[in-house]
Amino acid sequence: MDVIAHFDEIFLKGNNKGMFVKKLADNIRRLFKGVTVKRVEGGLLIENFCEIDFDRLALVPGIAKLAPALVCQRDIDTIEKTILAMPTGDCINSFRILASRSDKDYEHTSEYLNIKLGTAVLKKRKLKVNLKNPDVIFHVDIGRSRAVVYQNLSDGAGGLPTGTAGRVICLLSGGIDSPVAAYEMMKRGAELILVHFQNQTQVTDDVSRKILDLSKILAHYQPEIKLIIVPFAQYQKQVVMKIPADSRMLISRRLMFKLSELIAKQERAIALITGDSLGQVASQTLENLTAIYASVGMLKLAPLIGANKSDIVRIARRIRTFDISIRPYEDCCSLFVAKHPKTKSQTFSLEKLEKLVDFTGLDKVSLISYYISMNSPL
Ligand code: ATP
Ligand code: MG
Question: Rounded mean pLDDT of the chain?
């Protein structure tokens, strides 16, 4: 089938618009093998598209609206036949035609097309015209060489194509929030590299299935994702041995930031992303976030900071990370959960505590990297 995809925010990009559209087309080609993507008035026409992938296409960052489309010759008789052959859903009583012409030299005006095609639909189908609030809109876009006809535009992800805003490191835990944070950043154009701190002393092939599966789902929306696994157990052990229980989580999160900043420099990434949401857990009070985030100088962003858990869960279900996130997993952080964690730490007191931990070799920690695409055999 063919699909028409419209964008919204890309239109605000002035002279850079072409670059954004090209990136979106490129992302679609890489995410859906075998399709052809063409620029048409108002959006992109995706040909040779497999119907079962439609819902996934709707989640690709940068696509604001989309619909299955029929492409036909642009003479009015063919357009009429195409519209009349289109199946409509049940309980449809009213319609309107919405014609637009990108080729202004076309022989008929949009108004004429609306009236002529509307009259044909009235004659053949038991439908009334309703211009304000129709049950179905038949769209007709006249291009230079063809017409595109479609109805029922559905909502897409919107935002900007992944890979137009620069590279960021996302700290991916096994939880619900951080994969959603990653997706939200993709929607703002960021190219994501995922970093997971794993509860093991050495880099082995025994990477958590859960983390690989989450990364594979995220690779449905960004064509290829690099996943970096950091063996974390040697530091974890020290934290457990030397740091009072009520501050362990905060010290370990500061440590994750420090390591992430080193990785960011190597990867030429310019921000660190977390799934923090204000007040959700003890480490996410304003005071504790201040003390954690003060550990490194580079830009840190928490796209879910103001989001309610129920909204995060809704997005997680939509992007299909939720069922993976709720699988049991011994995240390294779960070892740091204290009965009575501090809720109001101060940076200087954490810095003092941190001196008890031996950070030598932090910059030499050996990492393992995976390049994950949605069909990768991992
Ligand atoms: P999530 O649902 O994403 O696990 P959470 O609400 O459980 O988040 P925390 O466990 O306090 O919150 O973690 C806060 C953030 O710290 C996570 O969203 C993630 O960005 C980062 N983080 C925590 N643990 C890890 C880890 N093992 N590896 C990488 N990042 C982590
Ligand atoms: Mg977590």
Answer: 92
171 token code pair: 């700290």
What pLDDT, in 10s, does the model give residues 194-232?
999 987 665 555 568 899 999 999 999 999 999 999 988
Pocket of ligand 1 (CB under 6 A): 171-173, 175-178, 195-197, 256, 274-276, 280-281, 283, 331-333
Q: Which domains does the chain have, with CATH numbers?
A: 2-155 (3.30.2130.30), 167-372 (3.40.50.620)
Q: Is 78 helix (H, G, I), strand (E, B) or coil?
A: helix
Rounded distance between C-alpha atoms, residue 118 and residue 110, angstroms:
12
Task: Decide if 88 contacts 151 (C-beta within 8 A).
Answer: yes
Q: Are strands 191-198 and 167-171 parallel, antiparallel or unpaired?
A: parallel
Distance from the alpha carbon of residue 330 to the mean position of ligand 1, in angstroms: 12
Overall pTM > 0.90: yes
Mutating to test ligand 1, I would choose from 272, 333, 334, 337 the residue with most ligand atoms within 8 A of its C-beta, which is 333
